[in-house]
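re: ur question from yesterday

yeah so i grabbed the chain u mentioned. its 410 aa long if i counted rite. heres the sequnce exactly as i have it in my notes:
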Amino acid sequence: MYKKILGQVILLVFLFVLYIYVLVIHYIPDKITIFEGENLSLKTIFGITLQSKDEVLEVSANSGEKTINKIGSETLSVSLFDKLFIKSVDVSVIPKTTVIPVGNIAGVKLYTNGVLVVGMSEIEGEDSKTYKPYENTGIEEGDTIVKINNNFISSTDDLIEKVNMSNGKKIQIQYIHEEETKQCSITPIKTNEEEYKLGLWVRDSAAGVGTVTFYEPATQSFGALGHGITDIDTGDLINIASGEFVTAKILNIKKGENGNPGKIQGTVEEQETIGKIIKNTQFGIYGKMQDLSSLNIDTSKKMEVAMREEIKIGKAKILCSLNNQAVKEYEIEITKIYKDNNYNNKSMEIKITDEELIEKTGGIIQGMSGSPIIQNGKFIGAITHVLVNSPTEGYAIFGDLMLKQSKEVS
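ran it thru and got these structure tokens back, copy pasting raw so excuse formatting
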């Protein structure tokens, strides 16, 4: 009996250790971008090693980290006890650069690649019976329909037109579910209004306001928000085909309170185009600037992007514009830093301490996401989230994470 229990305990311990190793390996990314001279810090455990595969770049061990000292690219191999190869990690090393922190409120318009399924409903046919034509097809909320009968779908109106052209005949649909392309067939239902419907609610665009974080003169690229734009119904990151940044007119500021986040209410109608949005990622939105003058950016205020080792707990400043006024500086405090976080946009915990800003907004409100953070004369990050039950507190993303994303559209 004792041996049986001991065997079960040993098996459970083995499975737990195996699970930990699998988890660590899973979270080692396939691709990493770092600055010249920046430590490449990956979370590993005993037995997992990181090695250079060639001599293109100098890679040296430094307190359990790897430091790559030359601009270019390198492939590193991850192995177990220097014996068993696990995976490769492609590392891109980019030069240090300067940016101009912005802080202006701007409008965002996104257009999806295909149409996003945001809901489903029963259809009443011309025979007064109810139908669910989408049932058992595999399509779910959050999926993106990209083709009908092998023809690309560019908008909601395009989808409606192609469904009506079917005259009730079965159509072939290509859609994307969790980054996997799938196929199914649906027979549209004819309604009393002489229309054919699938029972799917779809959306092809999204709009809102947020803050432009930085502009990089060398590449004419910009970053904003510090977090991605998700669909309000599904919560999924919107897969965009195109998008644009436009000037925005602030109409009202709803002050934040405990349990009730505030927001900047604005309009993007009849405004000037600032630039083209190319990427919508969990670390923000990025694109190319087309009309720098529309933001009244002072090009003389360039500054370096801080390394994480340079960011300190303590006082800092944010830049933001309120009530259609010029960008102003407001004091904040950095209360916690997650130095090794490369996985989400909650890199730092922050607290608004500026009495003027608290009086105006109650703290961090929707629309302030992307407000650049400055410390010791360097750009260190941007606001991303507010704590709903404590509106003066929230999270911020590292500036280096945003700039690395921006480099992919340069």
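noticed a couple things. The chain has four helices and 31 strands. also The two ends are 66 Å apart (CA to CA).
anyway ttyl
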